[in-house]
Amino acid sequence: AQTVTQSQPEMSVQEAETVTLSCTYDTSESDYYLFWYKQPPSRQMILVIRQEAYKQQNATENRFSVNFQKAAKSFSLKISDSQLGDAAMYFCAYSTQGGSEKLVFGKGTKLTVNP
Amino acid sequence: NAGVMQNPRHLVRRRGQEARLRCSPMKGHSHVYWYRQLPEEGLKFMVYLQKENIIDESGMPKERFSAEFPKEGPSILRIQQVVRGDSAAYFCASSPWRTGEGELFFGEGSRLTVL
Hints:
The complex is a heterodimer of chains A (115) and B (115).
Chain A: E1 3-5, E2 10-14, E3 19-21, E4 24-26, E5 32-39, E6 46-52, E7 60-61, E8 64-69, E9 74-79, E10 88-96, E11 104-105, E12 109-114
Parallel strand pairs in A: 2-12
Antiparallel strand pairs in A: 1-4, 3-9, 5-6, 5-10, 7-8, 8-9, 10-11, 10-12
Chain B: E1 5-7, E2 10-13, E3 19-24, E4 31-37, E5 43-50, E6 53-56, E7 65-68, E8 75-79, E9 88-95, E10 105-106, E11 110-114
Parallel strand pairs in B: 2-11
Antiparallel strand pairs in B: 1-3, 3-8, 4-5, 4-9, 5-6, 7-8, 9-10, 9-11
């Protein structure tokens, strides 16, 4: 079974600084998708960024980028120029390509942004 | 375009009562997913439905839990004879089709408290 591990229960960053959230996963599949979701205090999950495993290029979305290391099964999220609105729980998730949208989530990392 | 709507946002039940959680997917979305989030945990997949069909219920407890997505109306997650361990946030998500690409649109969740 696929598993997703986030080893940092909590992280903090100063406003305007950069922070990296870690995620590792375990799978025997060769094609799959990886995601970072953000859950602010309002609790609605929002997709931050998505990476297709067959793509070597790391995905980027404005201030958010990933470091995808397929051989190491690592998928970290880098947030640049952190803003107060980035404070939230961040969940790493995995989905098998071609399957249903049955996501496997990590336990999450709580990010605090200090002014 | 309204997002995924869940109600009630908060529900309190005594042990042995029934809980019904409702989810209206985004307009044009015919695929619905239910996830459960226990305290300090990530989301866990419960069930995947299309209109009038249960596609995958591998994450659903075998007893007391049921889900439906009728031709008309919202999807319903029903928990009979609730126990304290059912206390959790229940999230609904929808997608327009089964893409295998994993992008889901989440509601704000329903928090069930069992006394």
